[in-house]
Specification:
The complex is a heterodimer of chains A (379) and B (124). By secondary structure, chain A is of the alpha/beta class. Chain A contains 12 helices and 11 strands. In chain A, 36% of the residues lie in helices and 18% in strands. In chain A, the strands form 2 sheets. Chain A has a 9-stranded mixed beta sheet with strand order 3-2-4-7-1-8-11-10-9, with helices on both faces. In chain A, strands 5-6 form a two-stranded antiparallel sheet. Chain A is globular and about 55 Å long. The two termini of chain A are 16 Å apart. Chain B is mainly beta. In chain B, the strands form 2 sheets. In chain B, strands 4-5-6-8-7 form a 5-stranded mixed barrel. A 3-stranded antiparallel beta sheet of chain B has the order 2-1-3, with no helix packed on it. Chain B is globular and about 45 Å long. Chains A and B meet through α4, α5 and β5 of A and β4, β5 and β6 of B.
């Protein structure tokens, strides 16, 4: 298992004049500096995709621009799960001996690079092209369907979701790079305009410009290297119509396999970075992974379990819901924040928990692609 | 290719498939059974009656032409034949509602839409 030896990311929000490549370059430069590496040290490159700049070879396009000559390059696409899938791939590349230092980078000018309608239409293509897309569902609508059924069976309600949105906003207030920092309360979330009931505006992440990057190395470089301990994926269905059950998801399998690979349980985890495209996404993932009891995630958030000074700090940068979501880079931001917290470099946001193990979880599609990763600080 | 059978081909009907070998039924057209792999597959026309499994409403539509029609309901329906389908939904339909699926024809083609079944209709 390899090491995460450096991280970097931009502020998220509106970056006038930015491009996919310029944002990626900023984050990559920061990650290399954090790892204490030069461009010539980078011999592996893993990139994701950009909806504002679709390209057949994004990884080598970036290598050409950033002046890298890797001996391994790869662009990958598994929707919202791409960020952590890239981390898993970089770890596999390291273990296979294909590269010693792999740069993993993603970014996109998703806010200024295209209209909101275009973003919504592009993302809605996650639906089945013949049987779902013609009906005009949006990504919030797909998740609204999931939410309706999950609430029906578990008793979660809209107030439970609101607690999650409030926590992410409170965390974002402590990070100068976050897109949405104005404080909100539960009543604000409940009163925000309906998007796809039960989901309202404040249950949904914003669209952002931004980028994030990190370096995965075979060697333990520098003082802030974190060990990748266990990685697992699960892809159970592609389309919401084709899912057998909208209350049981692949997060359960992928997280259980990752935990078993390390021989630990959820009580050993000191920090959680969990995908939060919508409040319902986060609620389901907390419950399916087993961090919260089924139907209890909202109440446990309200009781402070996931506060920065609580038992299990969660997305302390504000997550997709408030730090922002620029696509693949949005998921990587969770990893960058995890790295800063576990290496105790988070400044005013530094959590108190001394537990050295962090759990990361990514979700792509409509709860259809899952990646779980455990990372550890070793003495 | 098969003859046009359902709304995805512009016909006011909803079709599903079944496996002659193992009896599995499914919605998205395939030339093999997703359960046992058999290629002995039959296409059947649904009676279009079922129960709502999940429901939402698109309030914020993603394009100007869809915005004219918004808000529009979207639901997943478990057909009595044992197959789950996505359709538009009339207002007021919620999880557990018994529904009949009808069809709306527009310049966008034919789209299925679910309306509440009366208890009389549901007796058959």
């Amino acid at each position: 298992m390899a090491w995460i030896t450096g991280v970097g990311m931009t502020a998220f929000g509106k970056h006038t004049g930015s491009t996919t490549i310029s944002l990626m370059s900023q984050a990559a430069t920061a990650a290399l500096a954090d790892a204490g590496l030069e461009r010539r040290d980078i011999d592996g490159l893993v990139c994701g995709y950009s909806t504002t700049m679709p390209h057949l070879k994004l990884s080598t396009l970036f290598a050409g621009h950033f002046v890298l000559q890797p001996r391994y390059a790869h662009g990958m696409q598994v929707g919202g799960a791409t960020g952590l899938a890239m981390e898993m791939l970089a770890n596999l590349v390291a273990d296979a001996g294909a590269a010693r230092n792999t740069l993993v980078v993603a970014g996109e000018n998703r806010l200024i690079g295209q209209s909101r309608d275009m973003t919504m239409q592009t993302l809605a293509q996650a639906g089945q092209h013949q049987y779902e897309v013609p009906l005009g569902p949006t990504i919030p609508a797909y998740y609204g369907l999931v939410a309706s059924r999950y609430m029906h069976e578990t008793g979660l309600d809209e107030t439970d979701f609101a607690h999650l949105a409030v926590l992410m906003r409170r965390n974002a207030a402590g990070h100068p790079g976050a897109q949405l920092r104005d404080p909100i309360i539960v009543e604000d979330v409940l009163a925000s305009k309906p998007i796809a009931p039960p989901l309202k505006l404040m249950d949904c992440c914003p669209i952002s410009d931004g980028a994030a990057a990190f370096v995965v190395s075979t060697d333990r470089l520098g003082a802030n290297a974190l060990r990748i301990r266990g990685c697992s994926q699960a892809h159970t269905h592609q389309h919401v119509t084709g899912a057998k059950d909208l209350t049981a998801f692949g997060a359960r399998q992928s997280s259980a396999r990752a935990l078993a690979a390390v021989g630990v349980g959820v009580a050993d985890i000191g920090y959680a970075g969990i995908h939060d495209s919508f409040t319902i996404t986060l609620a389901i993932l907390l419950e399916e992974i087993g961090l919260s009891r089924r139907g209890a995630s909202g109440k446990e958030v309200a009781a402070g379990r996931y506060d920065a000074d609580g038992t299990l700090p969660l997305n302390t940068h504000g997550g997709l819901l408030s730090y922002g979501h620029c696509g693949v880079g949005g998921a990587l931001a969770h990893l960058v924040e995890m790295h800063r917290q576990v290496t105790r470099r988070a400044g005013d946001r530094q959590i108190r928990s001394e537990l050295a193990l962090a759990l990361m979880h990514g979700d792509g599609g409509i709860m259809s692609s899952h990646v779980s990763i455990l990372v550890e600080r070793t003495s | 290719m098969d003859a046009p059978t359902d709304w995805t081909d512009g016909v006011e009907a909803l079709a599903y498939q079944s496996c002659d070998a193992c009896g599995e039924r499914w919605y998205f057209r395939r030339d093999f059974c997703p359960r046992c792999g058999s290629t002995q597959v039959a296409t059947r026309v649904s009676n279009c009656v079922g129960s709502v499994y999940a429901a939402t409403v698109v309030v914020r539509a993603p394009s100007p032409e869809r915005r004219e029609r918004a808000p529009y309901g979207i639901c997943l329906i478990d057909l009595d034949e044992g197959v789950r389908v996505m359709t538009h939904a009339e207002p007021g339909i919620g999880i557990g509602s018994r529904v009949r699926i009808g069809f709306q024809r527009s310049d966008r083609g034919v789209l299925p839409i679910a309306a509440r079944l009366t208890s009389d209709e549901d007796r058959t």
